[in-house]
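Supplementary Note 3. Input sequence used for the single-chain structure prediction.
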Amino acid sequence: MDTLPDWLIPLPDAETMRAVDRWAIEQRGVPSLDLMERAGAGVARMVEQIAPDGPVAVVCGKGNNGGDGLVVARLLRDAGREVAVVFAAPPQELSGDARENLRRLTGDEPLALDGDGACGREASNAIGGASAIVDALLGTGFVGEPRGVVADAIDAINAVVTPVVSVDVPSGVDASTGVVRGRAVRATVTVTFHAAKPGLWIRPGKAHAGMVETIDIGIPRGAPGGATIGLAGPLTGDLLPRRGASSTKFTSGHVLVAGGSRGLTGAPWMAACASMRAGAGYVTACVPASLQGILAGAGRPELMTRGLAEEDGGLTVEAVDGVLGETARGGALALGPGLGRSEGAVAFARALARRATVGLVLDADGLNAHAGCLGDLALRDAPTVLTPHAGELGRLLGLDSAEIERERLRHARAAAQRAGAVVVLKGDDTLIADPSGVVAVSSGDSPALATAGSGDVLTGVSAALLAQGLDPFTAATAAVQLHAEAGRQAARRQGGAEGVIASDVIAALPAARARATSGDGERSGIRRRSPGDELADADER
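The predicted structure, written as discrete structure tokens, is reproduced below.
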């Protein structure tokens, strides 16, 4: 895949946005001061919404982000608000449009955060006593770790319990990746210009962005594209295959779920049931022979079962041929739920992944079995989808989970390229990375999925959509969105996210799919409905 599908909302990175700005200014003749004026006006409107009264502190850096802040200060002062402008850099260092907006500023002189004596105290007091703070320190071009006075300014902003409006991106967040090195402003709202940036939707940057509001600043239509990251909004019906009059149980999607071990029978059962509820017409659970009766008697008579060779309640490499025989009808294979980590199970997972000629969704212990040999999956001829959480991806790449979480985008892309597979890095900001580098980002907002077994549900949904003929990137992205909507539906039915269990999510899948195919799930996703608070442990998602 070389370009972003049109069903994703482009999230341009910093380099792409620079090209867009240059195009608007140099080729379409839009004055750069006009762009800055509209940007500042949009931020000022947001300040008035979240804090209609009281003093405002506008904390500025020396770049164009600071220039936007100066427009905000001027417009709010013109509207009668008390506004303190606090600089984290000497005002004389401003240039270009930022310097011009400093010249246009009327009223009290700016304060220096690093000033000596009374001047420095006055700046600190202005921040601490504000009813709203505007963060205009660092813009989308910032990369690295804030230092010196800028770092002090970020600390001062974060130290007060006051609504914060960040200009374009929270200072300290890498707009292109979401990486935070050191410290970053925790915004209540981020007002971003022309289009949202990847770092506003990818953690840890997402956790700093709060609500994201994207505003038009007058960049003409036809701006150059080039985004390789896109936001996945709610599903639309044209993405999901539907059964027709001539459909059969096999053309509706044939799914095999291979896994299970003693004490872990629930995982393959949930993956299989999720596949059925996501539209698969024929589902077989391939499990150790001694566990076949447990799944067959689990209250789902529509589920086919196949008992396989085992040792001490776990699958062995001798079971591979049994699964391969079932793949003769085509479809897709979900490998790993409940598999366990015995020596036999590891050998089974590696051999089956290598030899299977159908689409493969690899999860849980199927992923763990490939720690140290991720590149072997690139030798497969059929589509492959991996669905790790941060811990599993860390084991695949030989890194700890904390390192994965620090740079989620980079590591998801690296794993996808190495495995020649679509990688679904789970979380509130689930990333779906194609080997080409194209990435879809889930808008999240489904905390009900933070429960045991929901990862098995996602595996089953992914396999069902892959079996129904979707390409692996589309199948994985649609599965993530369908899974998230089912989580929201389940939370509404149960009266809250805290009471949801994985089987509730399975039960909600048909309603979630119906909502998409009915057209009710119109794409939005530009505006996030709530601040990016830390969720409960996302490893189960």
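Residues 386 and 423 are 5 Å apart (CA to CA). The chain has two domains: 9-227, 247-528.
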